[in-house]
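Why does residue order matter? Because the sequence determines the fold. Keep that principle in mind as you read this record.
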Amino acid sequence: MSTANAATVAELNSPVAPRAANGGGKGNRVKQRLTSRWATFAAIIIATVWTIPTFGLFVSSFRTADDISSTGWWMIFTNPSFTFENYGDVLFSSGASSANLGSYFVNSLVVAIPATLFPIALATMAAYAFAWIKFRGSGAIFVLIFALQIVPLQMALIPLLQIFSQVLGISGTFPAVWIAHTIFGLPLCIFLLHNFISEIPAEVIEAARVDGASNTQVFFRIIIPLAMPAIASIGIFQFLWVWNDLLVALVFSGGTVDVAPLTQRLAELVGNFGRNQERLPAAAFISLIVPLIVFFSLQRYFVRGLLAGSSKG
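Structure:
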């Protein structure tokens, strides 16, 4: 591609790219409404109410079993007592009744990372094809993919499990969980990425093709850089969905320790009679570490992805 086209891509990818007059006016009105005093006050109230249960869970993770069963977490302000035994039991205890979160934590990483990258990669290519490559039946196929979002997840569990166990023989392995999460995540990822990629100015695509760029070159040099905010945003959501998933893990992991993720161990931690309930808040906060790292690492792209297209007319 020529230098002029590369400069055009860089200009469009810039957060200060020029916008149409009507789009800019609408964007300014939306910005003024979202940054008003009442909007800020409402956001603070919502954030506070949303944070109180999480704060209570955090306080409970440092309380003893007797304190948790006898008093509420708010009593920490009148009778403060803290202990790190819960975290010690969760992280370092050994035995049949221990939490043993180490192997499950690794399993969650092994499941979540490929189950996020696979659907994002496939959905990005499919979204580009539906948006900018004309072929017969593309509209009908896209509508079919969009319609798959309304199919309940539970309807596909048993047929897919039969295929994995009887045909492919991969039930109870990591590939089975990866494929399941990829299948279930693809329709929404394709739909969201298609909406973003289709808004890229046609002049940029046409200029690259005039310069002799192939579809592969357009995809990697233009589509990927411009769509990175949307890709990162969807990647965050997909990672959080997979990391916090329990249903798919229970069905396709086979309940084995070698494949079961952290959420399965958290569900088993308390047991049928509520024993060792003081360990659950500590284990829950340990499971929050990786999602928080992912979110804050990609926060810049996440915000840009949410605001993308908000100023269009």
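The two ends are 30 Å apart (CA to CA).
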